[in-house]
Amino acid sequence: MGNRKGILTPELRGRLDAIFEFLVRNRQINEKVQHAAYRQDILPWPDTGSKLWSLLHSKAHTQSAPKLDVLMPTWQNLHQNYDAFKQVRSVGELNEALWTLVQPADERGRANKPVFDEMWTSLKAVAGFGEKTAALFVKSIIEIHTLPINRDLCFLSAFTVDPQETMKVPVDKVIIHIFDCLGAPKENFTSINGMIEQSGLRLAERPTLWDDLWFWGFITQLNEKVAGRVTRINEPKFLSILGAPVDQWDRISFAAEEFRQLVEPARAMAA
Prior knowledge:
two-stranded antiparallel ribbon, 14 helices, mainly alpha, 271 residues
């Protein structure tokens, strides 16, 4: 019997426990992959304003089909408010700057929210962004400023993360497929984030750890003409990632097979 939408059953909780332990153990692999992407987004740009502009553009264009006409007013607002972004030095100032992109200005979502949740709330309302892309930007800012591997990329000062604050996972089709395999079909951004929050599984020094689901899902999924999206080791997808540690594929493919086995058995059990 399938899981009711957004309900963390004991069986699903057990599977998430095992996957979380896997993510903790293998976290350095995706940290290296993400570091390469962040260097491309951050290093070429001379000041805070241009670094933020680059990061916002980069995350907007991770969408499978970004709507350029919908995004246009966001880039216009960013240009008009560029001084506010150029002067950002802290998380609080970044939060304030992001609200300038919300048109028409609607700040009802600001009340009594932790700073990163408020940041996500503002960005999801920005034209052309939405909940997944907003979560991806917030995740990126946090990782750039908290992971030791990204120390040379930091550009904001006094950056701290409340260990009690829960970060939104940028849920897309890859992660939805993982939960489908785990026996939680037809879930969405809200329900998957809700189940992860219910699990209470978090790593204080790596609050964005659950986003690693995307990396492991991406290299263990492929689309077949008849079967659709299936779980299988996909080396071409791994090689398509700019900055992928290709020389470590033997180790990574071994871990990917472990991940696949943690995910796939649920299908057989649900049959």
